[in-house]
Amino acid sequence: MNWLHQQWIHFKKDMREAFDTGAIATHGKK
Questions:
Q1: Rounded to two decimals, what is the model's pTM?
Q2: What does the alpha-carbon distance between residue 14 and residue 1 come to, in Å, rounded to a whole number?
């Protein structure tokens, strides 16, 4: 796995976590 691909995977992971956190904050915890 090359460096750029690692950076992309890390970026997508961060975006997913940020999205999930925002959804929980907006809609309340399930």
A1: 0.56
A2: 19
